[in-house]
Fold this sequence. Notes:
The protein is α+β, with helices and mostly antiparallel strands and 152 residues long. 30% of the residues lie in helices and 38% in strands. α2 crosses α3 (34-40). The protein is globular.
Amino acid sequence: MTIATLEAVEARTLTLSRTLNATPEQVFNAWVDPNVLVKWWGPQGFTTPELKLDVREGGGWTTVMVSPQGSRHHVSGVYKVIDRPKRLVFTWAWTQDDGSRGHETEVELTFADQGGTTLMTMVQKVFAEVEHRNNHEGGWTSSFEKLVALFA
């Protein structure tokens, strides 16, 4: 890859980290237990009234997030790596208006024990456009605020 290509990929990659007041097992569980996931999934003000999680490598997942204005946002993917409680990797694609799946990205989460807290790092790549990466940064940042509050 050329330097320009690498820079373009980096610009379309999102990396976020948060320190959570929980064990890696608890934080990992927040991603795979539907009873916990619905408490923080989606930006502030959004709810998640529908979700299906087949938590196994090759298993599918789907959620429906509803905005405060009532618009529904469908997203789905497939679990690629489940290494409890250290690492979780899955694909991500929004359902388009015509019912097809949009551009697919990969989300990789790592959970590092920090002696009483957990450093959670998420890398989502490669977005089709920098604008999509930026939109996800806002959504994940808001969601992660809810996740941090869950363990406060």
